[in-house]
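Appendix B. One record, verbatim.
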Amino acid sequence: MLIEGKYVKDSNFTTVFTEDTMYTIARNTGDWDCIKIGDRMANGHILSKETFEAWKSECEEGNLNWKIKIFTLKGKREIKK
């Protein structure tokens, strides 16, 4: 699976915003997760379109391309650059 979109990085995570999905990738392990508009986030709040667009507008210009390889063995998901 290829993920393309605007992104923001901090010391621990890279967050990629596509059309309606936010992918969070741990920079040190490669573990990742995603949330779509309307889904419940870890803090219990629902990700609204307005919040998603506000966060997306704060991203760096340009796109980041990530190729994700999904392994089902032991339920682990990994990212391959």
